[in-house]
Write a structure and sequence with these properties.
With 372 residues, the chain is mainly β. It has a single domain, classed as Neuraminidase, CATH 2.120.10.30. Helix content is 6%, strand content 42%. It has 3 helices and 28 strands. The longest helix has 10 residues. It is globular, with a radius of gyration of 20 Å.
Length: 372
């Protein structure tokens, strides 16, 4: 595991002007190293094959949240539970049990902490359940579909991403009340392909202003939306020496269309935004070899008809396949960190960043965010 290694990435920033709705392309040259203002320092690994403490081992860690008092909550989907730890990593208690009633959990996936100390967790049983800090079920919001990401705003609005909805109507996110009633659908998913080599999955995050950030899994683009679905800006970048992705502004949808290429691998592993508005995105750091390509495609369910037992996942764990790139709101690349293994989600809480590898290594890597 390496400490932060910083480099520069070519990016392009597009802004949608409020009045003219004109799309403006701004190219940024490589910036001087003195402008690097964010670094990531390795802190510890939660779980994984070398963890001997059963209370810190996970079968499938799919979510992390930290409350205002420094308590850390880790979701274990296959254990149908949430583990609570103090800031030093000492186990406090387990919340939830298998089942479908109040207080039960059915394959929990994503978790957030609310300002009052409550925690909310999305379950694959098509609902969001809110627990008190003591672990008592307080409320169940029935959604009726699998939710991969959600947030609750300070105005008591529910933001969520349901992949099936996005595939059907090509909107990206929903804004609903706390009864689950949808108020609007926002964003534009231009992916109409059923080809697993091209088909996109999306990673979402929200900032303190409740703006929504969407990263494409197979195209190097980050889009920023208002809650009303209006596109604020799009960030195009090249994570490694790859051909520039072709794109265009769609006047009808007021959004970006991407020309996807069969076999192009970008591998976005997550996105989040810190309190300063800096954007963190996990993605591949280099073009993959044939073996690496096969292993990661099978892991992300992008290839049909391949027996998973024939794939050597250790290939991926032995190389620094992923990187975390950091951009400011102007699109400047202000930091980077390489790390080993795989990444399917990143989450930021104050000066902590958690990179989740839930599929292969069942571990979470914690970093400290250092601002120069």
């Amino acid at each position: 595991m390496k400490r932060s290694i910083l480099w520069l990435t070519a990016i392009y920033l597009y802004s949608i002007q409020t009045i003219s709705q004109e799309i403006i392309k701004c190219s940024f040259d490589q910036i001087d190293k003195s402008q690097i203002s964010v670094q990531l320092r390795f802190v510890r690994i939660w779980g994984g094959e070398h963890e001997s403490d059963a209370k810190k081992s996970f079968r499938t860690p799919t979510g992390v949240a930290v409350n205002n008092w420094g308590r850390i909550f880790i979701v274990d989907m296959d254990e149908n539970s949430i583990n609570e730890y103090d800031e030093k990593g000492t186990f406090i208690k387990k919340i939830g049990r298998p089942g479908q009633g109040p207080g039960d959990l059915m394959r929990p996936y994503h978790i957030i902490c609310l300002p009052n100390g409550d925690i909310a967790v999305a379950e694959m049983d098509s609902r969001i359940q809110i627990f008190s800090s003591e672990g008592i079920s307080k409320r169940i919001i029935t959604i009726g579909k699998y939710i991969e990401w959600f947030d609750i705003t300070d105005t008591q609005r529910l933001l969520y991403y349901a992949p099936l909805d996005s595939k059907l109507d090509h909107k990206i996110f929903s804004v609903a009340d706390l009864d689950g009633k949808i108020m609007l659908r926002g964003g534009y998913n231009d992916d109409y392909s059923n080809d697993p080599y091209v088909h996109e999955t999306l990673k979402l995050a929200a900032d303190d202003l409740n703006q929504i950030y969407v990263a494409n899994s197979r195209s190097p683009i980050i889009r920023q939306y208002e809650q009303d679905g209006r596109l604020v800006r799009a960030l195009m970048y090249e994570p490694y020496d790859m051909k520039e992705t072709k794109h265009k502004f769609n006047e009808k949808t007021r959004d970006i269309d991407i020309e996807r290429t069969n076999g192009t691998d970008f591998g976005c592993g997550g996105i989040d935004v810190d309190k300063r508005g800096n954007i963190f995105v996990a993605c591949f750091r280099k073009k993959q070899t044939e073996k690496e390509l096969m292993a990661t495609r099978v892991m992300f369910s992008m290839v049909r008809g391949i027996e998973r037992k024939l794939v050597d996942y250790n290939i991926v764990d032995k190389i620094e396949l992923f990187q975390i790139l950091i951009f400011d709101q102007k699109g400047n690349n202000i930091g980077k960190c390489n790390f080993q293994g795989l990444c399917d989600k990143i989450l930021i809480f104050d000066n902590k960043l958690f990179a989740l590898d839930s599929v292969i290594n069942q571990r979470i890597t914690e970093y400290e965010i250092i601002y120069n």
